[in-house]
Design a protein that fits this description.
The protein is α+β, with helices and mostly antiparallel strands. It contains nine helices and eleven strands. It is globular and about 65 Å long.
């Protein structure tokens, strides 16, 4: 058990030694590519962990509240160790590229928000990137050559943005934070129709029998690239 508890040691060491490039490479492994917003997530997560002077074991002792579901968030998850899977990542669908990070046992936290003019200023620094981003990412109608070009220059821009002073990209404020209680551990119930296990709060009674949302044809919450919404089976 002890050796697995230390699996984050390389990341914690990078945070302490201010190795932002090493942290960026760690994020690339799960995000799949590098881009400026991944860099900003790394910078924000690094700043927050240094500010709080803490480490993370993924046991909810550190909690991150993100306000977007874009590339920035993957940087936050890797550097802070707060993920959806360990219940230490909270998503508030506010549409802002921002994060608040805090430790349990304290109402003190730090909030970092990307400057509203950041994208325009970044594209002004790298004129070739804007049109490529528009065609490849926004319109999704680029040629293979244009896609290759963006994937070639995007990592270089990410590393350059990593070196810029944090205050030129992010607004920082100390804030008071009220964190939700620790995530509850719910028992599982077997659906009477499909025979699959389902978390008890998601069970519906159909003709008096426990039934999962899918078999009940019920509404469910869904997070997509469009944000949080509702679906129905």
């Amino acid at each position: 058990m002890h050796e697995f508890a230390n699996a984050r040691q390389p990341i914690e060491a990078m945070i302490r030694s201010d190795d932002l490039e090493g942290l960026l490479r760690q994020v690339e492994a799960i995000h799949g590519h590098l881009c400026p917003m991944v860099s900003l997530g790394v910078k924000a997560g690094h700043y927050a962990m240094k500010f709080l002077d803490t480490g993370s074991t993924g046991m909810e002792e550190v909690v991150a509240v993100v306000e977007c579901n874009n590339c920035f968030t993957d940087g936050i998850q890797v550097v802070t160790g707060c993920t959806f899977g360990n219940n230490a990542l909270i998503f508030r669908d506010l549409g802002k590229t921002a994060v608040t990070v805090a430790r349990r046992g304290s109402d003190q936290g730090v909030r970092l928000v990307v400057h509203p003019q950041y994208r325009e200023e970044m594209f002004a620094r790298y004129p070739a990137a804007g049109p490529l981003f528009e065609k490849v990412v926004v319109q999704r109608n680029a040629t293979p050559e244009e896609e290759h070009h963006l994937h070639h220059i995007w990592p270089a821009i990410a590393y350059k943005e990593l070196e810029r002073p944090l205050e030129e990209s992010l607004m920082v404020a100390e804030v008071k934070v009220k964190l939700p209680p620790y995530a509850p551990i719910h028992p599982s119930v077997v659906c009477s129709q499909c025979g699959e296990g389902v978390m008890e709060p998601r069970v519906r009674l159909v003709k008096g029998q426990p039934t999962c949302l899918a078999c009940a044809g019920a509404e469910y919450a869904e997070l997509t690239g469009h944000g949080i919404g509702c679906g129905r089976f």
